[in-house]
Design a protein that fits this description.
Helices cover 31% and strands 30% of the residues. The chain is of the alpha+beta class and 224 residues long. Strand 1, helix 1 and strand 2 form a beta-alpha-beta unit.
């Protein structure tokens, strides 16, 4: 996955099956692809792809272990605990290009991406589809009328995934992340989804547990 944005966590290579010695050339080819484009990237190893030989192949290509990330899921038929985020937080669905531009700026600053990546990130986000008929549904959270947080819901058949959950530093720990995740879950429920999944950062894992997300696996990230 190559977004053109010089930020590691949105340029990915991954394997879902164990790598073998004969895969070494492909791994090196992928590494050179990102090098030529001057893009940092992460190599994700999903659970079924984890093996000692996989580690050896990645290390031989100059990649080292960076972090483990839990894959979490929630059953949308279960009722989460009752939470009462502040009444001054409102959720806005992104339905037009102006909303999308605002979503882009808040997510960029919420993830604290480097300034030099702003133009390429704007080009990347401009490819997103907005609106209720899209498989992508984007949300903005506002606190006291000020845009504060973002999320993206992606729906495929009866499963949904939540991505791009970010909160501006000034609005963290005030309920924005909780409420915008609840909004994405509710949208998935209304679309008839049975489960919702996500990959949690250490900052977000505790919040997601409050919403009945439970870890089911752990992916491993490698980086140059």
């Amino acid at each position: 996955m190559s977004t053109g944005v010089a930020v590691s966590d949105i340029n990915w290579a991954w394997n879902e099956e164990p790598l073998k010695k004969e895969d070494q050339a492909s791994v090196l080819e992928i590494r050179e692809y990102y090098k030529e484009k001057n893009l940092p990237f992460w190599w994700w190893v999903y659970p079924r792809g984890q093996s000692l030989e996989t580690i050896g192949v990645l290390r031989a290509a100059g990649l080292k272990y960076f972090a483990g990330v839990p894959g979490m899921a929630a059953d949308l038929h279960q009722s989460p605990g009752k939470f009462h985020p502040a009444d001054n937080i409102t959720i806005i669905p992104v339905e037009n290009r102006d909303d999308l531009m605002l979503w882009q700026n808040i997510s960029f600053d919420g993830f604290e991406m480097p300034p030099h990546a702003r133009t390429s990130y704007a080009a990347f986000v401009s490819s997103f589809e907005a609106g209720a008929q899209s498989s992508q549904r984007l949300f903005l959270a506002c606190m006291d009328g000020k845009p504060a947080a973002t999320s993206l819901l992606f729906i495929d058949q009866n499963t949904a995934g939540i991505y791009y959950v970010s909160t501006l530093p000034a609005f963290r720990n005030k309920g924005c992340g909780l409420k915008i995740t609840q909004a994405a879950m509710q949208s998935a429920r209304e679309a008839g989804c049975k489960n919702v999944i996500l990959q949690a950062t250490p900052m977000g894992e505790r919040l997601y547990r409050r919403l009945n997300f439970r870890p089911h696996c752990q992916a491993e990230i490698y980086t140059l």
